[in-house]
Design a protein that fits this description.
CATH superfamily of the largest domain in chain A: Aldolase class I
Oligomer: homotetramer
Pfam families (chains A, B, C, D): DAHP_snth_FXD, DAHP_synth_1
Distance between the termini of chain A: 43 Å
Number of domains of chain A: 2
CATH topology of the largest domain in chain A: TIM Barrel
Keywords (chains A, B, C, D): Transferase
Radius of gyration of chain A: 23 Å
GO molecular function, one term (chains A, B, C, D): 3-deoxy-7-phosphoheptulonate synthase activity
CATH architecture of the largest domain in chain A: Alpha-Beta Barrel
Order of helices and strands of chain A: EHEEEEEEHEHEHEHEHEHEHHEH
Strand order of the largest sheet of chain A: 7-8-9-10-11-12-13-14
Protein name (chains A, B, C, D): Phospho-2-dehydro-3-deoxyheptonate aldolase
InterPro entries (chains A, B, C, D): Aldolase_TIM (IPR013785), Class-I_DAHP_synthase (IPR052899), DAHP1/KDSA (IPR006218), DAHP_snth_FXD (IPR041071), DAHP_syn_2 (IPR006268)
Chain lengths: 337, 337, 337, 337
Amino acid sequence: MIVVMSRQVPEDNIEAVLDRLKKAGFQIHLSRGVERTIIGAIGDKTRMGDLALEAMPGVESVVPILQPYKLASRAFKEQDTVVKVGDLAIGGQHIHVMAGPCAVESREQLLEAAALVKAAGATLLRGGAFKPRTSPYSFQGLEEKGLQYLAEAREKTGLKIVTEVMDAGTLPMVAEYADILQIGTRNMQNFFLLREVARVDKPVLLKRGASATVEEWLMAAEYIMAGGNYNVILCERGIRTFENFTRNTLDLSAVPVVKHLSHLPVIVDPSHAIGKWRFVPPMAVAAVAAGADGLLIEVHPNPSEALCDGPQSLTPENFQTLMKDVRRVAEAMGRSL
Amino acid sequence: MIVVMSRQVPEDNIEAVLDRLKKAGFQIHLSRGVERTIIGAIGDKTRMGDLALEAMPGVESVVPILQPYKLASRAFKEQDTVVKVGDLAIGGQHIHVMAGPCAVESREQLLEAAALVKAAGATLLRGGAFKPRTSPYSFQGLEEKGLQYLAEAREKTGLKIVTEVMDAGTLPMVAEYADILQIGTRNMQNFFLLREVARVDKPVLLKRGASATVEEWLMAAEYIMAGGNYNVILCERGIRTFENFTRNTLDLSAVPVVKHLSHLPVIVDPSHAIGKWRFVPPMAVAAVAAGADGLLIEVHPNPSEALCDGPQSLTPENFQTLMKDVRRVAEAMGRSL
Amino acid sequence: MIVVMSRQVPEDNIEAVLDRLKKAGFQIHLSRGVERTIIGAIGDKTRMGDLALEAMPGVESVVPILQPYKLASRAFKEQDTVVKVGDLAIGGQHIHVMAGPCAVESREQLLEAAALVKAAGATLLRGGAFKPRTSPYSFQGLEEKGLQYLAEAREKTGLKIVTEVMDAGTLPMVAEYADILQIGTRNMQNFFLLREVARVDKPVLLKRGASATVEEWLMAAEYIMAGGNYNVILCERGIRTFENFTRNTLDLSAVPVVKHLSHLPVIVDPSHAIGKWRFVPPMAVAAVAAGADGLLIEVHPNPSEALCDGPQSLTPENFQTLMKDVRRVAEAMGRSL
Amino acid sequence: MIVVMSRQVPEDNIEAVLDRLKKAGFQIHLSRGVERTIIGAIGDKTRMGDLALEAMPGVESVVPILQPYKLASRAFKEQDTVVKVGDLAIGGQHIHVMAGPCAVESREQLLEAAALVKAAGATLLRGGAFKPRTSPYSFQGLEEKGLQYLAEAREKTGLKIVTEVMDAGTLPMVAEYADILQIGTRNMQNFFLLREVARVDKPVLLKRGASATVEEWLMAAEYIMAGGNYNVILCERGIRTFENFTRNTLDLSAVPVVKHLSHLPVIVDPSHAIGKWRFVPPMAVAAVAAGADGLLIEVHPNPSEALCDGPQSLTPENFQTLMKDVRRVAEAMGRSL
């Protein structure tokens, strides 16, 4: 990290900073320039946050040089992490599509959805039993009943199950049914929940917060990894910007950026990012071209009857077409679907 | 709400929309224009979210006309809500300052902070016993020990206590000590937690999410109110923008906007918004000028030794100066401190 | 448009609004609900901006229903516009790559760049003779000398020339040399300049402003088209968001969105959006997968010697690799390069 | 600046960077750490932009330490700049209010507006003769006729004139009439225009671009100052964010931030930032509390008849009330109106 001192700062301010850095075990490089004194400090980056150097007299700014995460970084692990979900390998040569309805609404709806996404080539089934809804008056999910339908669909189709966990209290119940535990965008910095899923022996799909930088997202992954669970799959799902024709702005550049900074697999959820079904297929294809390891797609047997997120759900026909396009582009990129 | 149909849409698409709206009890106004057919629908706004009209064939867009919240709206209650915290009235003529350290670090630190903010005119003491930290390697709070120190400080100074609750599991413990339960910015849409605090008989200080619109913030308040707890205090604390010289961008216009749309009291936290102590005092004063009902200010006996957010904490001296400026502006605005 | 009146508004406020709408030739649909009176108005959308209805007493809000642009809209023209640049057709089945250095720096640099991008399959040469630079102390371009080198490169390679025009005063000079006039992101709402390029008989490449919505971007195109120049090519180049690991956030969803709303061709500039060469190739490929009609790519014979935007420029080798990947994905999407 | 080299970088990459820095006259400080080699470079900050270090092999990132502007910085000039406009001093103890209609619409409208803002205590008259409008179909201004009316209003009331210049071509005409040349938000990075106003002997009011950081805004001021015109007044007018209840988000923290970084005076335009007249008065008062040197306020004799920006214009009565509130808060802050 670099500590920039203010102009014409008294010598004892500089000494105090040097002193604190040395006590914390940092190696020091001091540069006295004409305009400023600048202090370089090299040491344990995970301790920097607690030094409070910016609050010391005479300190103008503190510039971090290295990323604050460690276990999630490419520097810590050169090779790509491949997360195993039963016999599926996420983060390898094969692209996995996780598809299904926003919410589990009924046994019939879910089994129908599972059959159709399986037929089109998906390998995982998504569906929410606990739904975070903006309005308290909206459908909030079938809870354990929904989890049971998901398990039944898995049994019938062989699809693995991805479903959201919203709270530490219901985590044991969700973990009993799910193959992958999804942390939703609104909970990316629910640190209580992150610490709890770290203790569960299931892969975690960590959605990017709608206003989280890539660095904060990787810090959230670091929470899970620091707690002992290394099976983290990252999921880009759009960030909040001024553009409001789409629900959020899908940040596809996050895919190669995360692959550069980290060894973790990255998938993309174009459905929530865009919010309008019409634009989901081109963005799904683009995500694969950008290097994504998988897709999370909302599909509903009858979107206009959906209790949740109908406007962004694909019909069975549109999903089949999407899968064909994804397959062609995956192959052009040297991958398979 | 207004439903805009696509150009050249078949008649049965229009009929289907009319049918669904009528079944949901909406009153219909149909406009057939040259370019488009437009359907106006008047009815229970809390049901709109579940209609999934945008997923119906031939629907181009759905434009909501009324706000989706009800209990939190000015239309529901004309007069300002005044939240009572013991003998304090938040939302009335008097401006309340809630001050103290970011985190409770030790008994000595907290009692010293409490004494000094009390002496300068604060009426509530803030301090975190559970801390949401971006890094898993940072200090995470003293937990129940911290709550006990807060209770002791209350006993010694008479200051009321505001402290954050991060999780439904620890809510009963926090509620035992706190006078006001704070929901942090990262939990504004933790709907599980919102539903739980709705059941507790304590006022809730609801921070705005860093990427939440005013409408979403009021919908989060609606969750708490719909669950039976009407004592909600809103707290603006900065939104995420492209500007990164300050930590976030303090949206002071949210103060008069919320007062127009809602009857709930609004306070402002300039410390977290700005992230640099130097700019906190002018923004505190500006918040009062904009009509805020109170302030949440980080003060530390010795900011450069703080375990959390030292760079944005005021020294005792700077806090005293701030309080004098706030008092003068409050009086110029016809209020008291 | 929909005019929402405030609650309990006096009758003469409603009458005044109806009166103004009727005088402006709008057809009226009045809905008197329990909570609100709502007025639907159908008519010439290009006149709505001047009605100032929101300033009238009793008006709470005005909600536009139709897009404010006309000539640029898909409703105005169903088929895709194909812009002819000599014998090149932009917006058709073939994807065009416009490549070259950020700035024309010397005759040698430009001719070398032209030869290499031509060899790799580009059909147009980009290069700035007038450079908008954030700092007044940075290289500002070779001006007319630079334009002459571009013309010489065109003669030698057959590549068409795309170059930026920054000001109405220098437009005649730039138009003399350029095949396509580029309007830069900072000038997207330089309405003086838009009106001037509308009068020139050359295609215009209109970059999206870094904080422009898709609607504002199409309104800028409307300026050029309303002035008589229908040959507008839109170029997505990243929008400003809170994420700052990349220079801007490339909004690839703008590609299918614009193609839905408008008939104009859309190309993508990943170089300026990302700002780091390493991430340009995957985003170029993703842009083609998303449906872009072309790419604008910065290539420099020796990026580390570039006077402008070296960090985002590709080396000749990286550009050749990119072209191969783009070709494969273009073919997978049923297009050619 | 700090140059961070990649992990395990070959020695000649480091040498090449050192070599380039030395040739450019920078003083070098080399830190070889366990993970990285880090190079500190101290020298002429205005030359950094052209070094293209990030494009050199082995360079991971370049972190600037000092601000890239010089003449606009507080380091260059300790004392506040006071801009003289005839006998008015902007940036001193007195707060100046610049008020008037968005656009000059007619002689009668302007003279009426001038008389009323003068009576309420404004010292400058604002009004646009050239109007940047989002739609090509909207009223674009009276041009020279409008400037003549402004001059007549000045003669009749003694108010100084602030009016926008949109283009280098019309600058001589505007400069003949104006007391202060306004650069609009869309032209903040129209570098051609900045260079031209730098040559005119009139103060320049430089509005912040809606997506400009404070640093970019000060760089735009630097353009004008580097060209020889030191009389720059900065004007905060809202930045683009995801919040869309208000037109833009007024960033009042920019006021103390700019006063810390620069010596230039700063005023605030709440009318354009908010876009709704109802919220303009509290934000005007808050701006003064935050330390602004002046205000730019839209006032119209009859807002609902305005040809431009009626919804954000104050009525004469509301403006009078605002002025009384502003005066009281200004006095509480030790300033006068």
